Amino acid sequence: MTADARLLPVDSESTAALAASGLRYGLVDTTDRAAFAAWDQADSRGFHESRLSEATIDANFANLAYRRTTGVWDDTIPDAAVPVATVSTWVAELTVPGPAIVPAWAVSSVTVAATHRRRGIARALMEGELRTAAAAGVPLAILTASEATIYSRYGYAPATSVATLEVDRRRVAWVGPTPTGRVHFVQAASARSIVEEISARAVSRTPGEIDRWGGRFDQHFGLIAPDSDRGRSIRTARYDDAEGTPQGVVAFRLIEHEPDIVRLEVEHFTAATDDAYAGLWKFLVEHDLVTSIRARHRSIDEPLPLLLADRRAVRWSEVEDFLWVRVLDPIATLESRRYGAAGRLDLEVSDALGFASGRFRLDVAADGTASVTRAPSVPDAARDAGTDAAAADPATLTLTVNQLGAVFLGGIRPTVLAAAGLIAADSPETLALADRLFAAERTPHLSIVF
Ligand SMILES: CC(C)(COP(=O)(O)OP(=O)(O)OC[C@H]1O[C@@H](n2cnc3c(N)ncnc32)[C@H](O)[C@@H]1OP(=O)(O)O)[C@@H](O)C(=O)NCCC(=O)NCCS
């Protein structure tokens, strides 16, 4: 498997399909600032954002050059240097139950210009990137979606959810454990210098999280435009444990909506230990002069309400699908994680794009490790054994590649998908076994958009 996605050429099938419509598909040279700037502006326009400042382009140029940056150009338009479609991809490290790490083809910046929409450009790009990822040996692909209706057709399904959490400050009385360490206000640059190491530890203990890139921290900490209103409004603090080791970082802003209505908006929250989690939340929710505390993209299984005397001081909203998973290689994907129970399960997988079709036998040992083999399809097995198919086969789950991605991290129970008619099991016992097998040690959670 290649670690550097930038070195792979664009997919020949998609190149031919786009060329047939007079379009040119290619890679952006991410060492060429002018070419990168045109691509960056197209990406921003595609998401209906403002034109990017030179400072933001400089930051993106410095931070995102490691990504495979692709575009589609239409040489017949007046501003032909600006691509009419964009996608960027890279091989991220995804934490899976165990915990363990698996390489995942992260897809971002999917845009098609409003002048070129609905003529198959996004489909060509998505399918082209999936073929490139599969050929490179990357076991699965991941993304976060602007709309829930776009990506199922390419084999993705939501595997984790997030929520916005809002705390009514006036109802806060802390009853959680007393943190053993201390919180210190620090400058943003100081927080930035320690956050990567703490974040790596936090990410590696939570299924669904991916490794971070420097630009994302700079954004959270207001370091891209430090003199802007937003940059100056951000406060950063660090949590040190009882031994003085930094274990967590937060960045937040205080926003006065009207006199005496002040919201504390959490821009960044990283805690590598449960103690740091409690220490930082206690600090945030006990802020004087604050009416409410709001944090986006939090886990749907957040312990915070249990740390307050009045757990209804915490309100949840915007509960949404978040990390979407697309399995490309079921054997490598399924073998990468640990399982919640021992047992044998056959997965009969269908995949309209062909990458993951087949029958896969999952054998989980007592320690939760799995070995996965391709199994003969049911009719073949029954014919070879000369028996009735049901008797010849072990517990079998029949599902699309989408639903394989949905259950993979343990955030969606097979039983729930079966109730929705999205997967089928040969018996209720099989479904119960599937629930036990795919259970994760922590509720999967991705806490950043990408
Ligand atoms: C989403 C977007 C990239 C689609 O590009 P496009 O080139 O118009 O898409 P295509 O013509 O290749 O369409 C492919 C399929 O997706 C469907 N589709 C496209 N955009 C869709 C949308 N926003 N919602 C639902 N379905 C959509 C098409 O109907 C088509 O379906 P079919 O193949 O089953 O007939 C484009 O609308 C866009 O740039 N949107 C704004 C930015 C954005 O939200 N990007 C996604 C980031 S996660």
Automatic annotation (TrEMBL):
<feature type="binding site">
    <location>
        <begin position="146"/>
        <end position="147"/>
    </location>
    <ligand>
        <name>acetyl-CoA</name>
    </ligand>
</feature>
<feature type="active site" description="Proton acceptor; via carboxylate">
    <location>
        <position position="450"/>
    </location>
</feature>
<comment type="subunit">
    <text>Homohexamer; trimer of dimers.</text>
</comment>
<keyword id="KW-0012">Acyltransferase</keyword>
<feature type="active site" description="Proton donor">
    <location>
        <position position="151"/>
    </location>
</feature>
<dbReference type="InterPro" id="IPR036527">
    <property type="entry name" value="SCP2_sterol-bd_dom_sf"/>
</dbReference>
<dbReference type="InterPro" id="IPR051554">
    <property type="entry name" value="Acetyltransferase_Eis"/>
</dbReference>
<keyword id="KW-0808">Transferase</keyword>
<feature type="domain" description="Enhanced intracellular survival protein">
    <location>
        <begin position="333"/>
        <end position="446"/>
    </location>
</feature>
<dbReference type="InterPro" id="IPR041380">
    <property type="entry name" value="Acetyltransf_17"/>
</dbReference>
<dbReference type="InterPro" id="IPR016181">
    <property type="entry name" value="Acyl_CoA_acyltransferase"/>
</dbReference>
<comment type="similarity">
    <text>Belongs to the acetyltransferase Eis family.</text>
</comment>
<dbReference type="InterPro" id="IPR022902">
    <property type="entry name" value="NAcTrfase_Eis"/>
</dbReference>
<dbReference type="Pfam" id="PF13527">
    <property type="entry name" value="Acetyltransf_9"/>
</dbReference>
<dbReference type="GO" id="GO:0016746">
    <property type="term" value="F:acyltransferase activity"/>
</dbReference>
<dbReference type="Pfam" id="PF13530">
    <property type="entry name" value="SCP2_2"/>
</dbReference>
<dbReference type="InterPro" id="IPR025559">
    <property type="entry name" value="Eis_dom"/>
</dbReference>
<feature type="binding site">
    <location>
        <begin position="118"/>
        <end position="123"/>
    </location>
    <ligand>
        <name>acetyl-CoA</name>
    </ligand>
</feature>
<feature type="domain" description="Eis-like acetyltransferase">
    <location>
        <begin position="209"/>
        <end position="326"/>
    </location>
</feature>
<feature type="binding site">
    <location>
        <begin position="110"/>
        <end position="112"/>
    </location>
    <ligand>
        <name>acetyl-CoA</name>
    </ligand>
</feature>
<protein>
    <submittedName>
        <fullName>GNAT family N-acetyltransferase</fullName>
        <ecNumber>2.3.1.-</ecNumber>
    </submittedName>
</protein>
<dbReference type="Pfam" id="PF17668">
    <property type="entry name" value="Acetyltransf_17"/>
</dbReference>
